[in-house]
Prior knowledge:
Distance between the termini: 36 Å
CATH topology of the largest domain: TIM Barrel
Helix content: 40-55%
Largest sheet: 8 strands, parallel
Number of helices: 13
Strand content: 15-25%
CATH superfamily of the largest domain: Dihydropteroate synthase-like
Low-confidence stretches: none
Number of domains: 2
Strand order of the largest sheet: 8-7-6-5-4-3-10-9
CATH architecture of the largest domain: Alpha-Beta Barrel
Radius of gyration: 23 Å
Shape: elongated
Amino acid sequence: MYRDHTQVIKIGDRVIGGGHPILIQSMTNTRTQDVDATVKQILALEAAGCEIIRCAVPDQEAAGAIGKIREQIHIPLVADIHFNYKLAIAAIEHGADKIRINPGNIGDESHVRAVVDAAKERGIPIRVGVNSGSLEKRLLEQYGGVTAEALVESALEKCAMIEDMGYDQLVVSIKSSDVLMCARAHEQIAERTNHPLHVGITEAGTYQSGTIKSSVGLALILSKGIGDTVRVSLTGDPIREVTCARQILRTLGLRKGGVEVISCPTCGRTKIDLVTLAEQVEQMVSGMDLDIKVAVMGCEVNGPGEAKEADIGIAGGVGTGLLIRGGEVVRRMPEGELLEALRQELLNWNSNT
């Protein structure tokens, strides 16, 4: 598979490439200059499963905040820079574990070289980012607009520029909001470089539409063995990006650990507020370090049978509920006690199994 043969890159205390596990990234939406708010959000993202975090660096104050943020968190911090090469250098000097630049908008070659020299001196990787909105006019004219081929050529040209400057600690990102184009571009670039690839569907949208687009796009890419880090880009709370990415990786068999919640779609037999109950269960298990499947079913008729594929489940009836293990009913109780009974079972899961 492609990811088994990508170059090994160290980002802070984490390693990507060479068949190492795919790491989940997200990006803060606080003002980076507000150190307290940014640290608070990153710590919450860590708890949700984020493994690499990126912060925007729009000015020197934000660059200066990188070090203060870095010393209070536990995952690698990537500084995201556009246009101003001096901000990239400042972010490096303040302790960023990686920087993200688009060499095409960072200035002339001397500016790129200055950034590369600073990164080389400290041994931190550079993420070369190219997206459909930043393609050079020359490539747009050559390919008749934004195409997968144009994205790949742009990214490889930027990588070659930095490699010619004597540095190869690169991670490549090529993104588009066009799902199929993005997938084609990743297939093409994976054939032409061994640099680790950061994958995602950019500007995917709000929680519902963005989750769907990201799930489809990332499944097309990751299932082909392409990708070393991943971000689900959603408008809103970045914690949702992390939980969605974890579920995508788990569904594709690329990540173990964490509780997977399955629930029935509801029907005329449903006698409880299954939607609320399922959401409560998902929230309850989000921080649990268990590699199990939990079923939330809406009736006592089909609940036990439908929950057979799960390790443990609950099903509701008219004022009553069932606790189920391996498709067998092990306990009946009032409906209002279902959630707490499930929580206790999960807290004691390792000692009970």
